[in-house]
């Protein structure tokens, strides 16, 4: 299978963002809380909760933090979160898709709109990017001495579309519809991904000059720093020059 999937070509290489552990934990806690409110606190009968807990473990979240998040979701007086998405264009026509989890939708939309305006972008209507992004299942697995050929064959049989090794991380990509079967196969093999979920992958990328790309990244950085925002997807092509600048 190809070692250069679309997801890998636009991944941010900015380690400083990934190092914001408290921000990562906050996002996972929201995922757990919503999962519990939707379908209860038993992960055996709640696939979304089971996945959120697995991601928490992959992020090295302490067990007590995970349990507190489950308890929070069980509390009838806890904040009720809404999941909302926003779509728009950044500087240079780069498509930007924003996923939010918020207890105040008016605050969130006001903030998101202001970010786009500040950085010379424009917020569009929901659905305006439906032809640009496609939801895919993404599994990030730490390579712990697996037989890569055998694992790749197992993943293909389960429905994987792409299998890529980057350093000590294996990335498995599948269609949205095959997420469950790939996840079950990994469970059967006793492999626990460091992170797994449905991501929005662009069907093509947009290349900009370095200065224009910097403007787009400033918008993305601002969006990612907002506590209401769970994920930001874009189709900016990460050129070698831009990747080198980000480190």
What does this structure look like?
- With 247 residues, the protein is α+β, with helices and mostly antiparallel strands.
- Among the domains are: 15-74, Arc Repressor Mutant, subunit A, CATH 1.10.10.200; 82-131 and 203-246, Alpha-Beta Plaits (2-Layer Sandwich), CATH 3.30.70.
- The protein has helices at 6-10, 15-18, 21-39, 47-58, 63-74, 105-118, 148-158, 179-188, 210-225, 240-246; strands at 82-89, 95-102, 122-123, 133-142, 160-166, 169-175, 195-202, 229-234.
- The strands form 2 sheets. Strands 3-1-2-8 form a 4-stranded antiparallel beta sheet. Strands 5-6-4-7 form a 4-stranded antiparallel beta sheet.
- A hairpin with a 2-residue loop joins strand 5 and strand 6.
- Helix 3 (21-39) runs antiparallel to helix 4 and helix 3 crosses helix 5.
- The longest helix has 19 residues, at 21-39.
- The model is unreliable at 1-10 and 12-19 (pLDDT under 50).
- Ends distance: 28 Å
Elements, N to C (H/E): HHHHHEEHEEHEEHEHEH
Q: State the strand order across the main sheet.
A: 3-1-2-8
* Unreliable runs: 1-10, 12-19
CATH A-level architecture of the domain at 82-131 and 203-246: 2-Layer Sandwich
- Helix and strand content put the structural class at alpha+beta
Say what the CATH topology of the domain at 82-131 and 203-246 is.
Answer: Alpha-Beta Plaits
Discrete helix count: 10
CATH class of the domain at 82-131 and 203-246: Alpha Beta
